[in-house]
Task: inverse folding
């Protein structure tokens, strides 16, 4: 369980990420969303924002890492199978060498 201090930090980082997005600072927003995940690894808002941004940038390795982080943070989540499938598809279609 997270402390109220950690949750407060996560909320401040979410606000910063959203502000960076409004300003059009994509890199600043991505950095802030990654910091949110470092504090709150299962944050649905941060996960959604990173999935959208990394997909738009075709950063498949980064996207796979985000999915893997989500699985590690909440190993018994309701969408675990869907996340595993997304990781498999990324490796199969986008990251194969």
Result:
């Amino acid at each position: 369980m997270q402390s109220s201090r950690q949750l407060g930090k996560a909320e401040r980082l979410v606000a910063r990420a959203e502000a960076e997005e409004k300003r059009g600072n994509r890199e600043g927003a991505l950095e802030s969303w990654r910091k949110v995940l470092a504090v709150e690894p299962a944050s649905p808002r941060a996960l959604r924002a990173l999935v959208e941004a990394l997909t738009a940038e075709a950063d498949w390795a980064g996207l796979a890492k985000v999915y893997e982080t989500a699985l590690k943070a909440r190993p018994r989540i309701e969408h675990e199978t869907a996340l595993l499938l997304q990781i498999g598809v990324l490796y199969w279609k986008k990251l194969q060498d």
Summary: The helical segments are 4-23, 26-39, 44-56, 60-73, 80-94. The chain is about 80% helix and 0% strand. The longest helix spans residues 4-23.
